[in-house]
Amino acid sequence: MLSFGFASAGALVQPSAPRHSVLRASSPSMAVLTPFTGEELIQVPDGVLRENAKGRPWVDQRPRPRRNRKSESMRRMVRETSISPANFIYPLFIHDEDSNVAIASMPGCERHSLKSMLAEAKDAWQYGVRSFVLFPKVDDNLKSNRGEEAYNPSGIVPRAVSMLKEALPDSIVCTDVALDPYSSMGHDGIVEDGRILNDETIEQLCKQSVCQARAGCDVVAPSDMMDGRVGAIRDALDAEGFADVSILAYTAKYASAYYGPFRDALDSHPGFGDKKTYQQDPANGREALIECQLDELEGADMLMVKPGLPYLDVILRLKQSTNLPVAAYHVSGEYSMLKAAAERGWLDERKVALETLTCFRRAGADIILTYYAKQASKWLLEDGLI
Ligand code: PBG
Q1: How far apart are alpha carbons 330 and 359 in whole angstroms?
Q2: What is the pLDDT of residue 36?
Q3: Contacts (Cβ under 8 Å, ≥6 apart) of 226
Q4: Among the atoms of ligand 1, which is closest to the Cα of residue 259?
Q5: pLDDT confidence of 345, banded at 50, 70, 90?
Q6: Which residue has the CA at smallest separation from atom 14 of ligand 1?
């Protein structure tokens, strides 16, 4: 006997027991909850529900994608992407002081003394993090329009690089190439009459890159968005005998408001105007492919998209048009948003952070620069995922 109203005649689904509660107004002013008794019959079209050999309802559906989701082991077996500490680059803020300063808009991040930076890198190392990128906060009286401090061999970055490489020789130490931390104008390049000079800036960036290479960095990461800087930096490095130093190009770097907390951290807000004459317009996607082609031709080893989460489409498009590794920068503002929501108890930080990092990988990022690098690696270890 059919206990369900399926099969040929009528194809009615009749719940055998009350299953739902429905709101009914017994008087115009009062709504009371009464159980749904099933007297309202829900019509299911003929032939949709059949009965299987066990007397259970059967929808004649052969492909069932849920089979590949039926257990955690099955889900792990068919998972398309994974994240691992090997994919992360951990950004570290440094300054030339003896103690650390918390960054209010980036809970959990600090401006480190060099000693503390080393301790943090070693701590991250034990969870599998191997790559770091350094961002300095430079004293105001060392700043100038031409940003000469950027290639001072005894500046904070070269010292930090040597310390890191000495303590962790197998690490990958990346350095940011741009003038903004050193610029009295708060811009990535030299300013003249309110304009950012392209080729004059490149000369400085070449010196900065060579200085960082001499200190022992493994990767230089130009984040300035001047035209032609990747090729020029490549030549400058090669001419000095640093053919092995890699270039991680900020290929599609957008003029984004998501960098706000980073600029708080380094006190590097633009002195005037914005960065829209050199960083990309957030409304543009195709333009990223022009930058991609140029950086490839100029000898970049890896290409980056920045910010990350609002630009997943750009990550995918870059991935589809290059054979070079693609990096995504999960930037300061993205980190701050998660932290703020988590602090209020509105989001589960651990789940949301790991999901976010996974989504970068799904979109096509091989590498992720993230302030969560250490924490996420810890979580992945705890969850037995690595
Ligand atoms: C500097 C630089 C910036 C970031 C990385 N390198 C800021 C900017 O371009 O103004 C932002 C990183 C972040 O927000 O986490 N050229």
Answers
A1: 11
A2: 73
A3: 188, 189, 198, 199, 201, 202, 205, 278
A4: 14
A5: very high
A6: 259
Please give the C-alpha separations between residue 343 and each of 91, 258, 346, in angstroms, as whole numbers: 22, 19, 8
- pLDDT tens-digit profile of 219-232? 999 999 999 999 99
3-class secondary structure per residue, 325-369? CEEEEECHHHHHHHHHHHHCCCCCHHHHHHHHHHHHHHHCCCEEE
Quick one: pLDDT at residue 39?
59
pLDDT band at residue 15 using 50, 70 and 90 as cut-offs: very low
- Chain centroid offset of residue 260 CA: 15
Catalytic member of 253, 319, 339, 378 = 253
Is 306 among the catalytic positions? yes
What residues does ligand 1 touch, defined as CB less than 6 Å away? 176, 178, 180, 188, 223, 259, 262-263, 275, 331-332
Residue among 137, 143, 275, 306 flagged as catalytic: 306
Query: What's the gap in Å between 332 CA and the centre of ligand 1?
Result: 8
**For residue 360, pLDDT beyond 50:** yes
- Tell me, yes or no, if 253 is annotated catalytic: yes
Q: Ligand 1: distance of its center to the CA of 144 in Å?
A: 19
Give 43's pLDDT tier (boundaries 50, 70, 90).
confident
Q: What's the rounded Cα separation, in Å, for the pair 313 and 307?
A: 11
Which atom in ligand 1 lies closest to the alpha carbon of residue 223?
Answer: 16
- Which residue type does 266 have? L
Residue 28: band (very low, low, confident or very high) from pLDDT cuts 50, 70, 90: low
